[in-house]
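User: Predict Lysine decarboxylase-like protein's structure from this.
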Amino acid sequence: MALDRLQLTLRHLSSSPNLRSLNSTPAPAEQPARELAYTVFCGASPGNDPVYAEAADQVGRAFARAGVTLVYGGGTAGVMGQVSSRTLHYGGKVHGIIPSAFLAQEAPNRGPCRPNEQETIVQSMRERKKLMADLSEGFIGLPGGYGTLEEVAEMTTWSQIGVHLKPVVLLNVNGFYSSLREFINNAISSGFISESNRGFLVFVDGPSLSHPLPASFDWGEAALEAIRTWKDMGSGGATPYSFEWTKEEKKGKEVL
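Assistant:
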C-alpha cells in the first residue's frame, strides 16, 4: 500500500507544471539572421576614365537598394573609396577591412565611422582576405591593379579547391577584363583549366564594348543578377575538386 501511494505521488509530481518547468531545458534563443554581404574588390586608384567611378556608383546604389552589405578593403581613395562612399550615400551599409600598415597613409582622408559604417583593422593581407571571405556570400571585381587581380584569383581558387563555394563576378567595364578572359580561354584550351571549371569566374559585359552603354544598363544590378544566376545554375555549372579540408584548415590556420 505504501508503495502504491509513493508511485501515485511520483506520477502527480511528474505531471506538475512547476516541476516540468524546472526540469525542462529552455529552448535555445533564435540566432539573428545573417545579413547578406558581398565583397567588392577594386583599385585604390580612380583609373583614367570616369566610367570606372560611374560603375562603382551603380554598384553602391544596387547594394543599398537590395539591402546588401558592402565588404571592401577599407580605403578611401580611388574606385574603392567611390564604391564605399556611394553605398553610404544611397543608405546602404559598409564594412571596411583594412590592414594596420595602411592606416598612416589613409590618415589624411579618414574620419570617424559614419552611421551604417563599420571598420575592422587587421594585421596582415592574409587576415584581411580571410575575414572578407568569412563575411561574404560572394565577390564582385571592379577594375583595379595587382591587388585586385590577386584577390579575385585567390577567391576563385578557393572555390575550385573546395575551401568555400562562392561566386566571383568580374565587371568588364570598358573592356577592362577582356584580356583576363582571353588568358582563361587560353588556359582552358592549353589544358591547365578544365572546361567544366570555367564557371568559377563569371564575366559581366555591357551591351556593347564599342559603344556607350544605354542609360538603362546598370553595372550594380547586372552584378547582383549574375550572382543569382550563378547560384541558380548550381555554382555556375562548375564542380570543385573533392579535397577533404579539415575545419581548422578551412578557418585559415593551414591552407589560407
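The first helix runs from residue 2 to 14.
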